[in-house]
Write a structure and sequence with these properties.
alpha/beta; 6-stranded mixed sheet; 6 strands
Length: 283
């Protein structure tokens, strides 16, 4: 049955991975469709995430494509079934799709890693800080747009309270801690909130001080949402024009290495807390 409404990020990802398996095997879309007994048009819809596919057919495709990676096949099978409607769907008419889909891949992630240089991680922002940031967007957002974005950001933070707890690591450069976008009072409260959240057992906040050596030259915020297996992870690069999602294996490997390097040069958790407290005290 064809999906109703636009395909979700998860549906599109399943289609992308099935197409990658087919192309690596050198099988045409027409031959793949004939192999599992469907029309070529339907195969195209499956690979675009616009038509559902059963677990049995995913396994049949994998066999036809000579894929012997059992972990990958079972991970793809777990992505089949009826479309899951999440709380984020209510924002699809209010916010850009790339923004809404961040909540979707955070929800499905097994762990989340974030690195920022000039801003606070979205999942660790106070509501006051978030609203202040959105008010400073260019072009200027209207009041109701600010409220939609701020409310959406606060709702996203529910993933930090999952049961079982979802591991979350945020690497924050000292520059982001010292930039007072929102004024002294809000900035101080934001820093103290970082310390508070870092005391949760599933949350790690690591600081890279200005003097750190071997710091990777990255500017835009990076979010790495770990999938059930590494090749089904997603990287989101945040920019003013929107959020870019990366899923190619080479891209995922590159950003894992970038995040590993940033964590290596960051201060340990305890020293990072003390560092943040000192900055907050001096604002």
């Amino acid at each position: 049955m064809a999906a109703t409404g636009p395909p979700t990020l998860r549906q599109r990802r399943l289609g992308i991975e099935l197409r990658r398996l087919r192309e690596r095997a050198g099988v045409s879309s027409t031959d793949a469709a004939a192999m599992i007994g469907i029309q070529q048009a339907r195969m195209s819809m499956i690979e675009a995430g616009r038509h559902g596919v059963s677990a049995d057919r995913v396994r049949a495709m994998a066999r036809g494509y000579s894929c012997d990676d059992g972990d990958l096949v079972e991970a793809l099978v777990s992505m089949t079934g009826r479309r899951e409607r999440g709380w984020w769907d209510e924002y699809r008419e209010l916010l850009p799709a790339s923004v809404v889909e961040v909540a979707e891949f955070e929800h499905h992630a097994s762990a989340i890693r974030v690195a920022v240089v000039a801003s606070m991680p979205g999942l660790l922002q106070t509501s006051e800080h978030a609203r202040a940031m959105f008010r400073r967007r260019v072009p200027t957002l209207r009041p109701h747009e600010v409220e939609h974005r701020a409310t959406f950001r606060m709702k996203r933070q529910a993933v930090l309270y999952d049961d079982p707890p979802k591991p979350y690591t945020a690497v924050i450069h000292e520059a982001a801690l010292r930039l007072e976008y929102a004024g002294a009072d809000i900035s101080r409260q934001q820093l103290l909130y970082l310390v508070e959240m870092s005391e949760r057992p599933n949350v790690s906040v690591l600081v890279i001080p200005f003097g750190a050596n071997d710091f990777p030259a990255v500017g835009q915020p990076i979010t790495y949402a770990a999938g059930p297996i590494p090749q089904l992870s997603t990287v989101a690069l945040d920019a003013d024009h929107g959020c870019e999602h990366l899923t190619a294996e080479a891209q995922l490997e590159r950003y894992r290495a970038v995040l590993d390097r940033m964590e290596e040069v960051a201060l340990p958790q305890g020293k990072s807390r003390d560092f943040i407290r000192r900055i907050a005290k001096n604002i």
